[in-house]
Every structure is written in structure tokens, then in C-alpha cells.
Specification:
By secondary structure, this protein is α+β, with helices and mostly antiparallel strands. 40% of the residues lie in helices and 17% in strands.
């Protein structure tokens, strides 16, 4: 006697496979979107940090007062739609690339200025706090935060 699958069993297995494929196909765009935005955030952070260092090195070359820029921009705190990390009129950092959000709006993958030296990166419904230290030029988040570790890799 030959043992074969019944039509009902085949339909059941194909239905389960179809549901699984549909589920994974729906999540692929979200995974790609998240990875694209994580990459953009990593580029933003690298740009900010390199601009701080570039500004300091230019001061060294010009033999002016060799110190880090006092603050990263002149934008009002918690103001949406402003360009962040532009520096000052005297010390220009980045030219109009990174737009701010506000604590009320909290757009995904956006920066919010919360004090003269503190910024929040809103990502995946989480806040990552970045602090600028003008004594050593560091622009860092708390490395104990898992998202901070991920974007600093």
C-alpha cells in the first residue's frame, strides 16, 4: 500500500507556508527602513564629531586660541524646524543639514535640542541623550544604553 499525502494535507501545508511568506515579506521593508535610518544617524554623529575636531584643528593652524567651540549651535531650545549643529557666526560647523524636532512632536530618527549642550536623538520610540563637552570636544551618549552602543559601532 502506497502512503501519499491527501489533498487536504497539501492545502494545509501550503496555506501555512503562504502565511509565513506573507508575514516575512511585510516585515522586510521595515527592516530595510530601520537599517537605512540607523546608518543615517551614524553618519550624522560622525559628521558632528568630525566638524568639532575640524574646527579645533583650524584654530590650532591659525594660531588663535586653541579651544573647542563653546556650543554647537545658536538654535533655541526645543524648537522644531531649525538647523542644528551649525556652530556660531564665528565658528561654523555644519551647513544646514540636520533639522530639529521638538519634545512635543518627537519625529522618528530626529534630533531635539534640550539645553545649550544637550541633545536628544529620538529613535525607535526611545530617547538617546547626547551631551557636548566643550572642554574636550566630546559629543557622546551614555554607552550603557543599548541603542547608543548600536549607533556608535
Amino acid at each position: 500500500m502506497k502512503k501519499t499525502f491527501s489533498i487536504l494535507e497539501l492545502i494545509f501545508v501550503l496555506s501555512i507556508i503562504s502565511i509565513l511568506v506573507l508575514f516575512f515579506m511585510n516585515n522586510i521593508p521595515n527592516i530595510v527602513f530601520n537599517q537605512k535610518n540607523i546608518f543615517k544617524i551614524k553618519v550624522d554623529i560622525a559628521l558632528i564629531r568630525s566638524s568639532i575636531q575640524k574646527n579645533f584643528r583650524l584654530k590650532l593652524l591659525k594660531k588663535t586660541e586653541a579651544k573647542y567651540i563653546n556650543f554647537l549651535d545658536e538654535v533655541k531650545i526645543n524648537k522644531e524646524g531649525e538647523y542644528l549643529f551649525t556652530g556660531t557666526k564665528k565658528d561654523i560647523l555644519i551647513n544646514n543639514i540636520i533639522l530639529s524636532s521638538s519634545l512635543e512632536k518627537k519625529k522618528e530618527y530626529s534630533w531635539i535640542k534640550v539645553s545649550k549642550s544637550k541633545y536628544i536623538l529620538y529613535i525607535n520610540s526611545n530617547n538617546i541623550e547626547f551631551i557636548y563637552d566643550n572642554t574636550n570636544g566630546n559629543f557622546d551618549c551614555n554607552i550603557k544604553n543599548e541603542l547608543c552602543k548600536e549607533i556608535n559601532e
